C-alpha cells in the first residue's frame, strides 16, 4: 500500500467477502429445493431464495469492483483519493441498500424483474452511490493529473454501467417491451461494459504481476475488449429470439453473439503468454493463479458455454432451462468473481498486517478447491439441463415429471457445490486471518515490483 487512502479498499473487500458467503447459503438452499420435500416452502420459496442468491451475487461483485477501483486508481494515478470520507459514506449507503433489499425480498417486496428486482427506492440509492463513486474517482484523477489508459477503460466501463442501469428504473406494462429493455442493462453489462472493467483489472494485474510492457499490454487489451464490446452490442439480440419481437433479430443475434467468443480466445491466450514471458517471477503466485485463471475460465464459461446455446436453432430447445444456469454460473464466476478475487489476492498482503507476500498453501487450496467445485457444478447443471431439454422439449414430458427424472443431477450439484463452498470458506478465512493495516503505515508492504514499473 503506497497511499493511505488505498486502505478503504479493505473494507469494500471485507463486505464483498461476507456477501459472497451469504450468496452461497442461498444457492445451496435453492439447490436443495429441487430435491424436495421443502419444509420452507411457505416461508422461503424457491423464487425468493433464487432472487436473494442472484442479487447477493451482483451486489458483492459490484462491491468488489468498487474496492478494486479504490485500490487501483491511487496506484495508477500516483495520488491519494480525493475523499476517503466520501468513499466510506458510499460503502455505508451501498451496504444498507444491499442488506435492506435482501430483507425486502423475504417479505416479497420487489419488482419481479429478474436480476433487477430491487424496488425503486433501492434503485435510486444505487444511482446515488454510483454518482458518488464516479465523482470521487474522477476528482482523484483530475487532481493527480496522471491518467493511464488502463484507468481510462476502467472508468469508461464503470460510467457506462451506471448509464445502462437507467433503463432499469423505468416500468413497462407490456411484457415484451419490459424484457426488451431489461437486456439493455443485463446483457450490455455482462457482455459489454463489465468486460471493460474486467479487461482493465486484467491489464493492471498482468502489468504488475508479470512486468509485461505496459504499452503493448494496453494496445492488445483494448483491441480485445473493443471486439467483445462491438460484437456484444448487436449480440444482445440473442435474448430476443422468443420474446415477441420481429424475426429479423434471429440471424442478427446468432451471428453477432457467435463472434463474441473470438475475442475471449485472444484474451486468454494473451494473459497466458504474458505470464509465460515473465517467468513467473512475482512472489504473489496466488494472485497470478487467479489472474490467468479468470482469463481461462471466462473463455470456458462465457466463450465456449455461451457459444453452445447462442445459435437460434439450439436456443429454441435450451432457452430458459438448466443449460442457461450451467452457462450463467461458469461465465459469472470466471469473468467477474475470479477477477475480483484476483484483485483482492494481489492487494491483500499490503492491506493487512503480517501476511506474507507469497501467501500460504491455504490460498492455493482455496483456488483449486473452488475451481474443481465450480467445474463440477457446471457439469451437474449441464447434465441436468441436457436431460431436461430431451425429456421436456423433445419428448414432450411435463415440466414437473421431467424434473423428477433429473433429480440425480441435483445430488451431484449439491456435492460439487459443497466442494466449491469449502474453497470459498477457505478464501474467506484466509482473508480475515490477518488484521487490516493502519493507513498511517502506507508505504510498508507495497507489492514487489510496484516502483520498478514506469507509469505513463
Ligand atoms: C462474462 C460474460 C457472460 C456472463 C457473465 C453471462 C451470464 C449469463 C447469464 C447470467 C444468463 C442468464 C440470464 C437470464 O436469463 O436472466 C445468460 C444467458 C445467456 N447467455 Fe450469457 N453470459 C456471458 C457471455 C455470453 C456469451 C459470450 C455468449 C455467447 C457466445 C452468451 C450466450 C448466452 C445466451 C444465448 C443466453 C440466453 C440463454 C437462454 O435463452 O435461456 N453469454 N448469460
Ligand atoms: C454453493 C454454490 C452454489 C449453488 C448451490 C448454486 C445454486 C443455484 C441454483 C439452484 C440456482 C437456480 C437455478 C434455476 O433457476 O433453476 C442458481 C442460480 C444462479 N446462480 Fe448459483 N449457485 C451457487 C453459486 C453461485 C456462484 C458462485 C455464482 C456466480 C459467481 C452463481 C450464479 C448464479 C446465477 C447467475 C444464477 C441465475 C442463473 C439463471 O437464471 O439461469 N451461483 N444457483
Ligand atoms: Fe447475452
How does this structure look, described?
Helix content is 74%, strand content 0%. The protein is mostly helical. It has one domain (4-441): Cytochrome C Oxidase, Chain A (Up-down Bundle), CATH 1.20.210.10. α2 (46-77) packs antiparallel against α3 (84-106), α6 runs antiparallel to α7 (214-235) and α12 runs antiparallel to α14 (407-432). One protoporphyrin IX containing FE binds at residues 114-115, 186, 190-191, 238-239, 257, 260-261, 298, 302-303, 306-307, 309-310, 315, 319-320, 324, 327-328, 331-332, 335.
Secondary structure: elements and pairs:
Layout (H helix, E strand, L loop, with lengths): L7 H26 L12 H32 L6 H23 L13 H25 L4 H17 L9 H36 L3 H22 L13 H30 L6 H23 L4 H7 L3 H30 L9 H34 L4 H7 L1 H26 L24
Helix pairs in contact: 1-2, 1-3, 1-14, 2-3, 2-4, 2-11, 3-4, 4-5, 5-6, 6-7, 6-8, 6-9, 6-11, 7-8, 8-9, 9-11, 11-12, 12-13, 12-14
The structure holds protoporphyrin IX containing FE (2 copies) and fe (ii) ion.
